[in-house]
Amino acid sequence: MIVTRFAPSPTGYLHIGGLRTALYSFLWARKNSGKFLLRIEDTDLARNSKEAAEAILEAFKWTGLANDGEILYQSERFDLYKTYVKQLLDANKAYKCYMSKEELDVLRESQMANKERPRYDGRYRDFNGTPSEGVEPVIRIKAPTEGQISFKDGVKGEVVFNVKDMLDDFIIARSDGTPTYNFVVTIDDALSGITDVIRGDDHLSNTPKQIVIYQALGWKVPNFYHVPMILNPEGKKLSKRDGAVDVMDYKKEGYLAEALLNFLIRLGWSHGDQEIFSLEEMRTLFDPSNINKSASAYNAEKLLWLNTHYIKTLPSERLIEELKYFDVDISLHVKKDVLIDALRDRAKTLKEFALHVRQILDTPQNYDEKAVEKFLTPQGIEILKGYFEALVSNGAMSETSEFELFTKDFLEKKELKLKDLAQSIRIAMVGSAVSPSIFEVLSIIGYQEVVKRIENLISYLRRDYEQ
Ligand code: GLU
Known about the structure:
By secondary structure, this protein is mostly helical. It contains 20 helices and 12 strands. The strands form 5 sheets. It has a 3-stranded parallel beta sheet, with helices on one face. A 3-stranded antiparallel beta sheet has the order 4-5-8. It has a two-stranded antiparallel sheet with strand order 6-7. Strand 2 (35-40), helix 2 and strand 3 form a beta-alpha-beta unit. Helix 6 (181-191) packs across helix 7 and helix 18 packs parallel to helix 19 (438-445). The longest helix has 20 residues, at 447-466. It is elongated. The chain starts with a strand and ends with a helix. The model has no long low-confidence stretch (mean pLDDT 95). Residues 7-9, 41, 185, 199, 203 line the site of glutamic acid.
């Protein structure tokens, strides 16, 4: 069975790069009817907080990538980690190192002076003597001292590290007893039965250390897939300066989770020229061995394009739910379906959609001066007044088609064209000359309010002329 995991460190927020590896891990597990686990790597008590973990989980929940089983918190597992440190000590695969900070500094300086890579020299590896007083030891693992550590990465192919270049007997537990990062990652991956580790290639240099730990404990090394970073359009690693990297910012800006996920799957993976993937399609088509070897560039336009597509095709009930986040609740509006149909193709984001809804449902507080000047000429005003009177004497209407018939009939009688009236109606309804089809807008706003808004504009214009 394939078991994958997402293991964020709660240092602030869910980064879109993290979400991308979570998506890949999720898809790979689901495709194989496996398991996708979630683990919070919160052992760095100084840098991690409960709030940050909650923020990550909230963002994760929004994306809909459901995890299997209980969420594992590393901060609750210190005792467990200690038993494995002890096991390695007992097996003589790890040892206590009593080197003081000063001694370490001296060693580092002399290595630097000799143009050598700073590394621990193994001086306590086979120490039998009496340790100096007052130094709380750290625990170091006995790492190979020569040769190579290699593994087959599912993205990068064969990866080889020369032990001399990058390994020493690294610390697995600090002098206060707390285990170190690579140690706990390995213990948890192994105990959770993780078979496939998909993560950013910024972790590549941790992998040989983790392999040393797997081997010391006699555990099977999982498959690794190291995914290249997301770059900004200038080819540098994507950062906050490039705009949103926090997943929740995408929600706030009005992106749909499905659009963001679709965007992220394509950032680093492809299936021919296909751009749009439903979650179901992602699940059937995704394979980590097709992850691109080179880094991919963030493309804001593409995301916007995808979002527009998903807004157009989202079921209305979902759209209504999503709009509530932007303080727009149209669930009880009698013309909600007309409203959604009229606006669906006009918004690139939900935020914009909500704004458009408000523009129609809220009585205009002011009017676009330029539009007023252009369309509400003395003749334009006369036509609008005539329309107003005809509306009042006609009595209530409700459907889009009724407004349309009535308006066309009015124009015909007056020997006018729709363009002689349409923009004035728009200005009366929404305050500007931009709106969806006016008959839909009239029907959504409703007869009483339509009459009131035209009356408002006429009295505003009168005031204008009287001044
Ligand atoms: N906690 C690490 C991070 O947030 C991920 C560790 C891993 O995937 O192995 O970058």
